[in-house]
Amino acid sequence: MNTVNRQPLLIYDGDCGFCIYWVNYWRRLTGDRVAYAPYQEVASQFPEIPLTAFQRAVQYVAPDGKIASGAEAALLVLSHASGKGFWLTLYRHLPGFAGFAELIYAFVASHRAAFYRPSLWLWGRDYEPPRFDLVSWLFLRAIGLIYLAAFVSFGVQALGLIGTHGILPLSDFTGAVRSQLGSESYWRFPMVFWLNQSDFAIQAACWTGAALSLLLTFDFIPRLSLFLLYPLYLSLFYAGQEFMGFQWDLLLLEAGFLALLLSMATKPGIWLLRWLLFRLMFLSGVVKLLSGDPTWTNLSALSYYFQTEPLPTPLAWYVHHLPRTVLTTATAATLAIELVLPFLIFFPRRLRFVAGFGILLLQVVILLTGNYAFFNLLTIALCLVLFDDAALRKVLPISMFRFVQHHVRDIEPRKILSYAVGACSLIILTVSLAQLRAEFGGGVPVAAAWLYEEIAPLRIVNTYGLFAVMTTTLPEIVVEGSDDGVHWREYGFKYKPGDVMRRPRWNFPHQPRLDWQMWFAALGTASENPWFPQFLQRLLENSPEVTALLRVNPFAPRPPRYVRALLYDYRYSTPQEKTATGAWWVRQPEGIYYPAIALGS
Length: 601
What we know:
The protein is α+β, with helices and mostly antiparallel strands. Helix content is 56%, strand content 9%. It has helices at 17-30, 39-42, 51-56, 70-78, 86-93, 97-110, 112-123, 133-155, 158-162, 170-181, 185-188, 199-217, 222-239, 247-264, 266-290, 294-297, 301-308, 314-320, 324-339, 349-369, 375-383, 389-393, 398-407, 415-439, 446-455, 513-522, 531-541, 544-547, 575-581, and strands at 9-12, 35-38, 59-61, 67-69, 474-482, 488-490, 492-493, 550-552, 562-572, 585-598. The strands form three sheets. A four-stranded mixed β-sheet has the order 2-1-3-4. It has a four-stranded antiparallel β-sheet with strand order 6-5-9-10. It is elongated.
C-alpha cells in the first residue's frame, strides 16, 4: 500500500487522447487541490490496483489512501472545484443516481477514441473552465442602456399618456383600483405611485430611473441601481395601464430582476438568463403552431408580416417585395430558429454558440425591418450569456478587452446572498416549468399554481409569444377634426402610417406608445378600447400634453368643435405605383370607427 498523500491524486491513461483532454480541463478546474499523473508513470506505486483497472477507468486516491474509480472518482475530483460538489452529493444520496452515473461512465470509457473528436469539436481544442466575469460585466452595462432607453422613452410621453391632462390619468386609475380592491390594491398593483399620483411624481419616477440607468451603465453602485430600477419600472408598468402592457416591458422586468441576481451570484444568474432566453424564443415558436394560424403552417406568414406589422421601417417596404420563395424560406427559417435552436442553449459551448448566432441573426433582421422599441436590443443582450469570456476575447478589440478586464470584479456572494439567490431561482424554475406545462395543455400542480398567483404581481416570471396569429390586412385609424362638421382636417401621428406619401420612420429604441396602441385599436372596435374616447376628449380640449404626442395638430391655435375617427385599409404601393406617384402606401376607406362628437357630448 502506498504511503499517505498530502493531496488527492487522480491517475489516468496517459496514452488516451480523450483522457488527457479532460484531465487538462479538470486540472484547470481544481488548481493545486488535486494532483494528476498517468498510470504509466505511477502504477508501480500502487500494486494493490490491477493494471486492467487503470486501463478501464480513472482511479482516485484520497489522502488517507482510500481508492475510488470510474464515475465516483470523476465526481470526487469535481468536488474540489468551486460549485461542483453537488454532483458527488447526488451520487451518494440520490437513489439510482450512482448506478446511472457508473453506466454512463462505462459506456464513454469503452468508446473513448470515438468521443475524442466530438469533444474537440464541441468544446474546442484548448478547453478551459468557462468564466463569465466579462460576460456578466457587459450584460449589466447593456441592461443599463436598455433601462435608460425605456425610462427616457416613456418619460417624454408620460404626461400625455397618464398625466393629469393625459389620456388615462394616473389618479383616476389608482382611485378606481382602490375603490374595488381596498388594501389589496397595494400588493396586486405594486407601485410607488400609491404615495403620490401627481405629474411631478410621474416625471420624478421616469427621470430617477434614467439617472439610475446611467449609474448602472457606468458601473457605479450597480447592485443598488439594479435594486431600485426594478421597482421603478414595475411602478411605471402598472401606472401606464394600456400603454405599458407590451411583452418587452414584461421581458425587461424579468431580465432586470435576473440581472440583480446575476450581480449577486454569477453562475446562477447566467443559467437563469439562459432559461429566460429559451422560454422567450421557444414559446414564440410554439404559440405560432398551437394557434392553428394557416399562414404559419403553409409558410406564407412573412408574405404579410412586413406590410401589416405595427410600425415598419423603410426597409420593410423593400423586403415585402422580395420574391415569394425568399419570404417562404424566411418563414421556415424563423420557425426553425424559434423552435429548434433554443434547445442548443443547454448543449456544449459550440452548439450553444450556434444558437446564439442564429438568434442574433433573427433579431437583427427584425430590428432592421420593424420598430419594436428595445425588444430586439434586449434579446440581443440576452444572447451574451450564451457565450463565455474565452469566446468574447476572440472578438473584442484588445484595448476594449483590457479596459473591461480591468473593471471586472469577481463576485463571491456571501452565504445569505447565496441562499436568497437559491430561493429565487427555485421559485422562478417552479413557476416557469408550470407555465410551460400549461402551454401544452398539461395540468398545473396546485402548489405551483398558488405560488404563481402569489408572485404574479411582481412580474418576475412571464409567458411570451409574439405574432401567434399573423394579421393579413392593415386597418388604420385616421382621426379628423372639424370646426363646422363639414370640412375635416386630419391629425398626423409621428410614426404610424397616415399620409400615404410619407416614408415609414425609424424610431427604435424609442416606443411611441400612442402610435402602437392605435394599431391594436384598429384590430378591434372602439367599445373594446375604452381609452380611445378619452383620447378624442383630450383632442377636443386641445390638451397640450396629448397633442405633443402627435406630429401634426391642425387645430393648434384653438381646439376643433368636432372630432371623429375613420377606418382605412392600408397596403404598400407596388414598385410601379411608387415610381409613378412617389407614394409608399395605398389606402381605401372602410367606414366609421368612431362617429363625430363634440365637447360635452
